[in-house]
Amino acid sequence: MSRRRLLALLGVAAAVPLTESLVLVLIGFRQAEGLIGQSSAVWPYDSYHDMRWLFVYHQSWWAFGLGLVGAIVVRGALSAALVGLSWPAGRPRPAWRDLLLRNLGVAALTAVIVAPFAALAVAASVVSLSWVLFASLIPMVILAPFLQRMAVGAGWWRGLPTAELAGWSLLNFVVITVAGGLVWSADEAWTPVVAVAVGMINGLMWNRTVRAAVLPSHVRLRRVPVVPIVVVLTLAIPLVAQALTQRGGATSTFSPPIFTQPLPQRVPYAVILLAGHNSAYDGRPSADPNVERFSYNGLDSGGRPLPYRASATHQSLESSAQMLAAQVEAVHRRTGRPVALIGESEGAMVARTYLRSPKSPVTALLMLSPLVRTGRAYYPPPTADSGYGVATGWLLRALYTLANLGSETDDRPDEPFVRSLLEGAPFYRFQTMCPIPGVRVVAFLPTVTAAESTPGPFTQIPVVEVPSLHVELLDQRMVHDKVIDFLAGANLRNVRSEYGLIQRLGAAWHAPLLTVNVNPVWRSEAPSGPAFSAARICRTVR
Fold first, then answer.
1. H or E segment and range at residue 466
2. pTM of structure
3. 26, 77, 188, 476: which has the highest count of C-beta atoms within 10 A?
4. pLDDT of residue 250
């Protein structure tokens, strides 16, 4: 490759993320700056970048259709230029017209392949669950070396990619991830510099991947249609992940030590335990009369919690909070003690919803794996024909319908619990991790939570960061002991060094957040402050 062509390649690859970074810095959209490294990356990361923006920021079917066509045309033209400039010397390069037509087709096909995973990335912004984010991202890493051969010639759909091509694809993923972390680690004034640097590295990645695709040393399984098989298998990843994370049945799935063992004498509270999504309860009493399970089915005539099945947890947070209010009053009357709430995942969100009006017998709240900064995106209910994310919602409905086949539970993207997060986003995004007057509050955050939310300020309450997955923290002996200490009056706080690092490294793979100001559904309840600023955390909702 001549020096002139190389400089042109690096210039084109750097100009795109530089332009995006300048726009984002100008409007103060720091939360989305981690995405800039993907804007000129190799397939399919470039389309993944485009589709996430489109799925969040379209307000009608017309806008989605025009945006999709525009994204395909721009991406196809840009990729044709990058492929042409990367073409290895000594090999005849196709005519520019042929490259353009091929890459327009590649852009269209990649958009279709990537669309389900981009929609899941938006869903991850709604519910702040790490498995949803990982289910959207892992297929991108798997597909990358298979799809990168599409842009250079025929026969791309047969045979395995070479080890060289797979290596360059993986390196590009690492570069994009690190670049997203650097954006958040440095002052915002350095964002354009990082954009130019990652863009130039992207140019080198295009050069090496195109070379590896055009000059393969040896293609294994040359006659086998490997790419279609891999695409189908990767499309199954989020469906399988959804099925594996569903817990069904009618028996209890939440029996931590605090439920099965008596409370120590030094604990002055009556305790209500709130289990998470798709949990169930068979009605068995706790070992201590001052401890009680929250029931998503309410109370019997004697004021005791009723058994419930997993489907009961799908109700709205407002409905669950009303049931919790009745149970808190019943427990307080029965025991004469102040009440402490211990909620896991959805249970933490139910407790936080109830405590929006803090005048109650509750004087302590312990949240385990709360859904941090939920409601960062939106899609309207199925009865609406417009609204931000209207196409995203229908794609998610199709995906969840497939995932629910043969499942004991029936998770839906429009179940009342999820719609509570969507419609009440200003509160849940900005107020969940905030102090509550008259209530002692602490949150236990598993390490995986760091990947669930964008970097930046997210809490003004004490947190205990624990190396763990999302659920069943309370089953761990160390966590149980700390919970007892908190209930006995101790103040807890433990911030782990890797938590912030994981947050920054995950910045590149989130969907851009939908600012509360532009969505008419949220606008009336938006806290004061700049449109894209994280400084709204814990500001009063209008």
1. strand 463-466
2. 0.90
3. 476
4. 45
